[in-house]
Design a protein that fits this description.
Bound molecules: flavin-adenine dinucleotide, iron/sulfur cluster
Structural class of chain A: alpha+beta
Strand order of the largest sheet of chain B: 10-9-8-7-11-12-15
Strand content of chain A: 15-25%
Number of domains of chain B: 2
Largest sheet of chain B: 7 strands, mixed
Largest sheet of chain A: 8 strands, mixed
Low-confidence stretches of chain B: 1-11
Order of helices and strands of chain A: EHEEEEHEEEHHEHEEHEHHHHEEEEHHH
CATH architecture of the largest domain in chain B: 3-Layer(aba) Sandwich
Order of helices and strands of chain B: EEHEEEHEEHEHEEHEHEEEEH
Number of helices of chain A: 13
Number of domains of chain A: 2
CATH class of the largest domain in chain B: Alpha Beta
CATH superfamily of the largest domain in chain B: Nucleotide-binding domain of ferredoxin-NADP reductase (FNR) module
Mean pLDDT of chain B: 93
Helix content of chain B: 10-25%
Mean pLDDT of chain A: 95
Structural class of chain B: alpha/beta
Largest interface: A-B, 55 and 49 residues
Oligomer: heterodimer
Number of strands of chain A: 16
Helix content of chain A: 25-40%
């Protein structure tokens, strides 16, 4: 059997010098992909369309803790030397705002039609292991049930995923507890490991292997491969935060009257930040957008949050009329009922909700506390 | 944890409503009307089918969507009916519509009453007010297949005699073999029937065979809670009690997150749920 020269097999690893990463971006753009990657904006590393490696956060890193995030200079020129920022790829696959349908008033009455969207073709550059896991979670939510969301699945099918293995971790990361990282194992087309001055690129799919074969790359020396392994191990070693997930579904769903909910409900501002930054949160609402005479009306879906009071209104009032019950809904959904609904945890351990909570509520601490003192019977 | 066999999702685009036209409107009570609607698109009319207990999302452009149960016979060819109480935006906009007007409809959605599984069994329908609407298709089904079921009873409550739905049909239902008992919270001079909460009717109902008796219940959560307690006192097993629940419904297809109740999405695992499967969550305030 001879290897197809046009395809580097899955699992194959090649090397490029850092100054040739631009070739990868150029090649993707030639193939009509919009390349989205990390850039620095408003003192954070966020995802945006990139055309040049110069837009990447060269030499920047992020320092994170409960309720804190700040950028800092690195001592080197690493392009992916940060962890995760406030954005996640969900804003491209599940857009914050999208049009679902349109209605026009005619002589005969209302006519309703679908609003066709040619799904944009994205290449994501810099997807972390926890983010690959988050995409896999949203795949189950939007495309795994009896009803498939056409907007998500259209975008998802064409998306090209270039992962980046973490070589460092933030204090808020706990992917090892959630078994989602830091190593990128599955779900990518290509995965990079960044070393000083070079990248090791691993192939994760035939699509990735075909693309990589079109790029000028070198074989990896044993030393390079060992250095890449050591760099990835460094991330594992830096992870200190833990969450005990043993039987977590039952632990949470049998502690619905635990006094901790009240205590945390008193700290939580119900600001929705945690749900906006979470890469798996999927709640949405639909609004009517009408012209002045209400003759053309569109239905627009926008991100919603279980922390919005009106999220739970029914005739007769709000079901979750206090912050305690809203925080409880969020955490029990994420860590417990998500398992019933989608066969997976809703948390991938990225730590964003810890970092971006203005009052620093930390779900790993919450889980520990809920395990600690059982509620009075 | 779907409680009834997975229902085939409606064909075509899950987000785009189909246009329906009002054929007839019947004023049931002060604030409640029954709308007979028909699809503009003949192909959609031909393929549309639902099971008793399911609901549609009715859409008034500019006002939005509301979840409304289907209150008609599920047999194909029957007129499609919705019984709607005016409470807000969408129901208010529907109230202002007239015969010939159009609006949008997506559906059917949700789980159904387990009527196939209950063949050969006794059934008690227990409900109050507008809750009779989602049960009416089940009542029709049972009466249309009367020989397939044992004793069947409807226990129905309303705040006042004026609030009773479908009053003109009770006589036919009784003739078809349904035991009908009606109660009101507040009587008026012409009322000669029961007064009090509907669960009292269940307490007093003589049952020949509680182990094979099933309760199908729709109402406010407290009412369903007391119904279950009363059923248990009557020695009806917990797994024989079925309830239909309500939460904020937005997408109806399990994608928007609004209708969660513990582990269930009420739009696709519900609205009809087996009581014992959700019982631990029912008393939890704010879930
Ligand atoms: C499965 C299911 C089946 C149903 N079947 C039927 C049926 O057969 N017939 C029927 O009449 N109804 C039925 N309903 C109930 C119906 O869907 C609701 O009453 C729906 O809210 C009506 O929509 P609306 O736009 O008219 O009211 P809305 O405008 O949504 O108002 C509903 C209520 O919420 C309040 N409200 C509105 N906005 C807010 C807010 N932001 N914050 C707090 N409160 C607010 C309003 O004051 C009002 O009391 C069903 C519901 C479900 C879930
Ligand atoms: S719950 Fe928090 S840590 Fe878990 S995936 Fe969401 S944002 Fe990340
Ligand atoms: S937990 Fe924190 S981020 Fe989430 S709603 Fe409460 S205050 Fe906001």
């Amino acid at each position: 059997m001879t290897a197809d020269p046009g395809l580097i097999p899955i699992g194959g690893e090649r090397r490029i010098p850092s100054d040739r990463l631009q070739d990868l971006i150029d090649l993707l753009r030639q193939d009509d992909y919009s390349v989205v990657g990390p850039t620095v904006d408003q003192e954070a590393i966020v995802y945006d369309e990139v055309t040049s490696v110069d837009q990447l956060p060269r030499g920047w890193t992020d320092e994170q803790g409960p309720g804190t995030y700040r950028l800092a200079r690195r001592e080197d020129d690493a392009l992916f030397g940060y962890v995760v920022g406030p954005h996640s790829w969900k804003k491209y696959l599940f857009p914050p705002l999208s049009t679902l349908s349109a209605a026009d008033r005619t002589e005969q009455g209302w006519e309703m039609r679908r609003v066709e969207e040619a799904p944009p073709k994205y290449a994501f550059l810099g997807v972390r292991a926890c983010e690959l896991a988050a995409i896999a979670v949203q795949d189950r939510v939007f495309a795994g049930g009896p009803y498939v969301d056409p907007i998500y699945s259209g975008r998802r099918q064409s998306a090209f995923l270039i992962a980046v293995n973490c070589t460092q971790a933030a204090s808020t990361c706990f992917c090892t507890s959630m078994r989602t990282g830091p190593r990128c194992c599955t779900g990518f087309d290509l995965a990079l490991t960044e070393l000083p001055g070079e990248f090791v690129i691993e192939v994760g799919s035939d699509r990735g292997g075909t693309l990589l074969a079109r790029l000028t790359t070198d074989a990896c020396s044993a030393r390079t491969l060992a250095a890449a392994e050591a760099a990835r191990q460094q991330a594992v070693d830096q992870i200190t935060r833990r969450m005990d997930t043993t039987d977590i579904r039952n632990v949470l769903l049998t502690q619905l009257e635990h006094p901790r909910w009240q205590e945390t409900g008193e700290r939580c501002l119900s600001c929705t930040n945690c749900t906006m930054v979470c890469p798996t949160c999927f709640c949405s609402t639909v609004e009517e957008v009408a012209d002045l005479k209400t003759e053309h009306v569109e239905r627009q879906r926008r991100w919603d949050s279980c922390f919005n009071p009106e999220f739970s209104y029914v005739h007769g009032g709000l079901v979750r009329n206090d912050i305690r019950s809203r925080y409880r809904q969020w955490l029990t959904h994420k860590l417990a009922s998500w398992q019933d609904q989608f066969g997976t945890s809703g948390c991938v351990g990225c730590g964003r909700c810890i970092t971006w909570c203005p009052v620093g509520i930390d779900l790993t601490e919450e889980v520990a506390a809920l395990r600690e003192k059982p509620a009075c019977p | 944890m779907p409680v009834s066999p997975a229902l085939a999702p409606p064909q075509g685009d899950i987000w785009t409503p189909h246009a329906v036209r009002i054929v007839d409107v019947v004023q049931d009570t002060d604030d409640t009307r029954t709308y007979h609607v028909a699809f503009d698109d003949a192909r959609q009319a031909a393929r549309y089918a639902f099971r008793p207990g399911q609901f549609n999302m009715l859409y008034v452009p500019g006002a939005g969507e509301a979840a409304i149960s289907i209150s008609s016979r599920s047999r194909s060819g029957s007129p499609l009916l919705h019984t709607i109480r005016t409470v807000g935006n969408v129901t208010g906009a529907l109230e202002r519509m007239r015969v010939g007007d159009t609006f949008g409809l997506r559906g059917p959605f949700g789980s159904c009453w387990p009527l196939e599984e209950l063949r050969g069994q006794h059934i008690i329908f227990i409900t109050g007010g507008i809750g009779l609407a989602p049960l009416r298709p089940a009542i029709y089904h049972v009466l249309d297949h009367r020989e397939d079921y044992g004793d069947v009873a409807l226990l129905y409550g309303a705040r006042t005699p004026d609030g009773l739905l479908y009053e003109g049909e009770y006589r036919d239902w009784i003739a078809d073999g349904l035991r009908v008992q009606v109660t009101v919270d507040r009587a008026d001079p012409r009322w000669a029937g029961y007064v009090g909460v509907v669960t009292l009717l269940l307490d007093r109902l003589p049952l020949s065979d509680p182990a094979n008796t099933h309760v199908l219940c729709c109402g406010p959560e407290v009412m369903m809670h007391y119904t279950a307690l009363s059923a248990f006192r009557q020695r009806i097993p917990a797994q024989n009690v079925w309830i239909s629940m309500e939460r904020n419904m937005n997408c109806a297809i399990g994608l928007c997150g609004h209708c969660q109740f513990g582990p269930s999405f009420l739009c696709k695992d519900g609205p009809v749920l087996r009581y014992d499967r959700v019982a631990p969550f029912l008393p939890v305030r704010g879930l």
